[in-house]
Amino acid sequence: MTLLLxxxxxxxxHAGSAxxxxxxxxxxxxxxxxxEHLDAEEAFAEAAESAEDVVPWLIVDAEGGVATxxxxxxxxxxxxxMVDSSVSGGPAGLDALPGALSRLEAAIVxxxxxIPGAVDLPVALLRGxxxxxxxxxxxxSRSRLERFxxxxxGKLTGIGARMxxxxxxxxxxxVFAGGPAALGGLQAGDRITRxxxxxxxxxxxxxxxxxxxxPAETQVVLDIERPADGGGFEALELVLTRAEVVIxxxxxxxxxxxxxxxxxxxxxxxxxxxxxxxxxxxxxxxLPITGIVLDLRGNTGGSLLQACKVTDLFVEEGTxxxxxxxxxxxxxxxxxxxxxxxxxxxxxxxxxxxxxxxxASASEIVAGALSLxxxxxxxxxxxxxKGTVQKxxxxxxxxAEDRVRFKVTVARYRLAGDVPIETGIGLAPDLRVAxxxxxxxxxxxxxxxxxxxxxxxxxxxxxxEGVDLPxxxxxxxxVSEEALxxxxxxxxxxxxxxxxxxxxxxxxxxxxxLVDVFRHRGLDWRPADESGxxxxxxxxxxxxxxxxxxxxxxxxxLVHNRGSAPLYxxxxxxxxxxxxxxxxxxxxVGFLPPGETGLGSAMVRVGAxxxxxxxxxxVRVLAxxxxxxxxxPGVLHIAPAVPAPVAATARIVPEPQGARLxxxxxxxxxxxxxxLRARVLLPADAPLELVDPEGVVPLLAAGATERVxxxxxxxxxxxxxxxxxxxxxxxxxxxxxxxxxxxxxxxVRVSPPVVAAxxxxxxxxxxAQLDIEANDDGALRSVTVWMAGDKVAWIPLERSQARxxxxxxxxxxxxxxxxxxxxxxGARSRKVAYVRGIDPTTAGASDP
Length: 848
Prior knowledge:
Layout (H helix, E strand, L loop, with lengths): L1 H30 L8 H15 L3 E6 L2 E6 L3 E7 L15 H14 L10 H11 L6 E4 H12 L1 E4 L2 E6 L2 E7 L4 H5 L6 E5 L2 E2 L5 H8 L6 E9 L5 E9 L1 E4 L3 E5 L5 E5 L6 H13 L8 E4 L8 H9 L6 E6 L12 E3 L11 E5 L6 H11 L4 E4 L7 E9 L7 E12 L3 E2 L10 E9 L2 E3 L9 E6 L15 H12 L5 H28 L17 E7 L8 E10 L5 E9 L10 E7 L4 E9 L7 E10 L6 E10 L7 E10 L2 E10 L5 E9 L6 E3 L3 E7 L4 E10 L5 E8 L5 E9 L6 E3 L3 E5 L3 E3 L1 E10 L4 E8 L2 E7 L4 E10 L2 E11 L4 E11 L10
Parallel strand pairs: 14-15, 15-18, 18-19, 19-23, 23-25, 43-49
Antiparallel strand pairs: 1-2, 2-3, 4-21, 5-12, 6-7, 7-8, 8-9, 8-10, 10-11, 13-14, 16-17, 16-21, 20-21, 21-22, 23-24, 26-27, 27-30, 28-29, 28-31, 31-32, 33-34, 33-41, 34-38, 35-37, 35-39, 36-38, 39-40, 42-44, 44-47, 45-46, 45-48, 48-49
């Protein structure tokens, strides 16, 4: 009977997922905008590979509408084709996807091996399908869906405050006006020590937020510590009644210049009302405002309708937006067109919109419409470039843990004059503003794309030793304020003329500052008098010391001017697709006479999490009023770091006044570890609570053991599950492990596996070999290997030491090889190595 019930339950679950697959593919078939570009076989392959990502033992090879599922130990499990062999002549297209997804699910579940409890396999498969559509079509569930709903609605049920961790304590960062927290007297900077009598020490931020939130009209008791005027903290208890609160996504301020600033974080259902209230506040001020700055920097979008309504607050007529689905047709239940209409409250003052590369979607609608309708000028950076519209559809209903929704791209939008937003290009600002950032390590100049109209100097502490600097200004805002004050009318043309005059004045000031700031490092940064052809130079890249992860290294460029004319403002820029740590690196040289050699250098921080690698990097030479030169590529490498594994021993020690959690940390590696912080996270039902948030070990020498004690209170009998985290002074994780501590005070020792992974730093494209050595104080459970993001091996282990060799198919370029080792206790160690595949037919002189 039990087996029958289990089989029945599995059958019902499979029937439910089949309905999800049918619903999702039906939406794609009938609603998806880019249906003509959809490759059903690619979507099927993405679904199979998405399952591979969440099922540890599963390895997938998918190509041509066929997915081969392999068990890392037992080999091939099944071959699943998009064509159902039971249906004669079934098409390998979109219509075949629901059945193919069901067969994929059945094959994985039917393997009989455990699937992690947190994995929702149908959701994982559909997320893979969505990856085969476009980057904006996504499947949402659980916390991702909850966050999306809150962002769009602009409301949540709770106390109305933003919380976060500071020094291991739960701290109030912001209190929302009019919410229960504000009405009850909670203040920014307050530390919450208890929620309904439960200590927040050792409680994760997400768990604390869940405890503070709850149904409307229910109460929560907060014990807080408030900084006192004379030092120390004042203890208070607040009883707050939860309610639905509006998330403050709109912030308004009357600036000293007389302009009104409106900053919008994202477009929710509350945005238009909040902006309207902000405008009313400006009108009620003692003096009329001189202009409006609408700040959309960092605003990634939100509600399309709210974007139109916000724009309508500033214009009296004109088409703000229209949408079109497939073949230019209307989309059901989607706004077809929005035209502005006069309300009589539109402010008759000049206006500027601030933008950056993260301004997207709804932000681009507002900025583009205000510009095209002659209402505002745009200042800052080019926007993200997202000209499509998504609608949300339900795939599975139920409670918060069960709901699944599908956000599908269904339309594109056009602004006034049928102007589209080009994908990946976005809106170009009328005044392009960029910074030259000077830090202790060097200078960062704008890289790629069109150059700035106005380059400003951002000097940070450390460029000049011993010099106190004022706070960095918001330069784009300051320029906008000045232009608004200069504008002789409220229209866009008047603001553009004022921006031109303002930027011309500012450019002279900033260029003089640029020369002066470079002078403090001995660089002659005088400008050129006339233009010329691309510079004739030779460039040699070098690194002063081998760059070891966790260290600062100096990168140098020797530049020899082979031309007959002097070069001005010479700089070498490094470009690489592998990004960190070299991407965007600028090596300034300055003035370079003909026949001479100049040196450019910069200090680079090599992150402790990086591994040995070798990168081929692009070399670009810039010179004032010269065409940029793409020089011969160079090769930079990172040396291997000596690992420093840490073991931990813990126990709960009863004491007359309570108890203490004793933690001993042992450095098993060959290098010292500085300023370690040991922190503990407890589950909601833990039988004890923490008194101390963390323990600190100033120095853990190689081979040494140090102890830290955390005060605890026993709440109930029983063993205690906890998570121990150890970080170094830079916040990098050294140790993370789940522990179960007995009530009797017995010692529990855990240590992550020690892993060594050796792969050639560079190799001809094709086969290379990865050699892995792993050992553990107990038993190893498994080794998983990824190559260039694809899982290539899963090997079960049941011994304390293992040596494994894995063949790798190395593509051209630099690729990460990730080795993940788990022991029987769940402790995990990850090693990342890099191999650069060199195509023998194209290898050049720059290759070693």
